[in-house]
Amino acid sequence: MPPAGPARPAPAAGRTRHNDPMAPLPEHPAHADLRHRWAAAVGGAEHADRYADALLARWAEPQRRYHTTDHLVAVLDRVDELADHADDPDVVRLAAWFHDAVYLPDRSTNEERSARLAERALPELGIDAARTAEVARLVRLTVTHDPADGDRDGEVLCDADLAILAAAPDAYAAYAAAVREEYGFVPDDAFREGRAAVLRQLLGLPCLFRTPHGARMWEERARQNLSTELKLLESSGT
Question: According to the UniProt record, where is the region Disordered (predicted)?
Answer without folding.
Answer: 1-29
